[in-house]
Structures are given as C-alpha cells and as structure tokens.
C-alpha cells in the first residue's frame, strides 16, 4: 500500500511539474509573440534604438538605387534591384579599407565594382556616385569609345548602365581619415567583351 501511495504521489508530483512547465512554456510563447508584434508594429512603449539606424540605411539603399536607375532609364535599360548578399560582400571589403580609405579593387572578380572616396564624412549617395555618372559625357555610343582626358575613363559609367547587370549591392563607410568610401558591386558584371553597354 505504501508503494502504491508513493507511486501515486510521484505520479501526481510529475503531473504538477509537467503542468507548470506547459504553462510556463505557453506564457513564454505568448510573451515572445507580443514582443515581436510590438517590435514590428512600433506600438511598444519602448523605443527601438536601432530604428533610426535602419531608417537611414533604408534611405541610403533607396537613394543608391534611384541614382543608378535614373542613369539606366536615361539609356533605356531595365532597373537594378538591391541585393543584400552583394551589399554584405561590399561592406566586408569596405571595412578592410577603413584604415587607408584607398579606392582599390576587391580581389573577387565575380562582380563588377565601382569605388569612390569623397572628402568628408557627410556625403550622401548621390554626391558619391556623381563622378561615375559624369563619365557618361565622354562615352560615345556610336563608336563605342571613350574620349576621357588622361587619367579619367568611362568604365565606372558603363558599369552603372551595363544592360545585362541585374543586381547591385553597396556599402558606405567613414574611414579613419574622416573621408567617406563607397563601394558598389554589380552582378552580372559589366565591361566585358566588345559589345556596347546598352
């Protein structure tokens, strides 16, 4: 009889423990769902410290796409879409250039690439990409040639408007010098073969 009572007591105890664990798990799930809803809807009383950073990043992405796609629209090629994966690669490479802020080409030739360094830390994407687009004035479509002065070229412009390029991802950082580095990578890459860019 004692064994039966002990088994019954142990069984009751385990039932209570399992019930408490189930209730605790249910409360955690509800709390997590509520936290997720509040974070995504912005209805929480707490302010999201990263919301401002994410908003600035989204505005920069929109501006970079706008700059590229306005140039592409002007020559009649389809717009580019943003690639977070390509942007992550560009960011990784840009971070490696933080110390010297040198506009050197990355070692991965799987992408097309444009790099520019702007003086100062408060340059927007439009100002940074302007030198790439200005190269368009030297490009002659009829002869598929570039009449740029010595030390200049058209390759950054032709990469922006390359007809077969579909995706772009960029990173903008402030270097240790206080200047701004913008790296944009493109897929598929442009400036290959002898064909016209558009």
TrEMBL record:
UniProt signal peptide: 1-26
Function description: Probably involved in the defense reaction of plants against pathogens.
Tree of life domain: Eukaryota
Classification lineage: Eukaryota, Viridiplantae, Streptophyta, Embryophyta, Tracheophyta
Keyword check for Repeat: no
UniProt keyword list: Pathogenesis-related protein, Plant defense, Signal
Protein name: SCP domain-containing protein
Species of provenance: Urochloa decumbens
Entry annotated with the keyword Signal: yes
Short name of any one Pfam family annotated for the protein: CAP
Residue intervals of the SCP domain: 59-194
């Amino acid at each position: 009889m004692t064994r039966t009572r002990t088994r019954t007591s142990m069984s009751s105890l385990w039932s209570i423990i399992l019930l408490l664990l189930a209730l605790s798990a249910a409360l955690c799930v509800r709390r997590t769902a509520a936290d997720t809803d509040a974070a995504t809807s912005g209805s929480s009383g707490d302010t999201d410290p990263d919301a401002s950073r994410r908003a600035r990043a989204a505005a920069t992405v929109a501006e970079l796409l706008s700059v590229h796609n306005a140039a592409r629209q002007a020559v009649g090629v389809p717009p580019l879409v943003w690639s977070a994966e390509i942007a992550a690669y560009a960011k990784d490479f840009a971070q490696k250039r933080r110390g010297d802020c040198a506009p050197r080409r990355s070692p991965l030739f799987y992408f097309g690439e444009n790099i520019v360094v702007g003086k100062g830390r408060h340059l927007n994407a439009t100002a940074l990409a302007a030198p790439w687009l200005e190269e368009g004035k030297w490009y002659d479509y009829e002869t598929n040639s570039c009449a740029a002065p010595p030390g200049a070229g058209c390759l950054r412009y032709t990469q922006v408007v390359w007809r077969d390029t579909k995706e772009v991802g960029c990173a903008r950082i402030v270097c240790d010098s206080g200047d701004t580095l913008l790296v944009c990578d493109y897929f598929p890459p442009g400036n290959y073969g002898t064909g016209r860019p558009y």
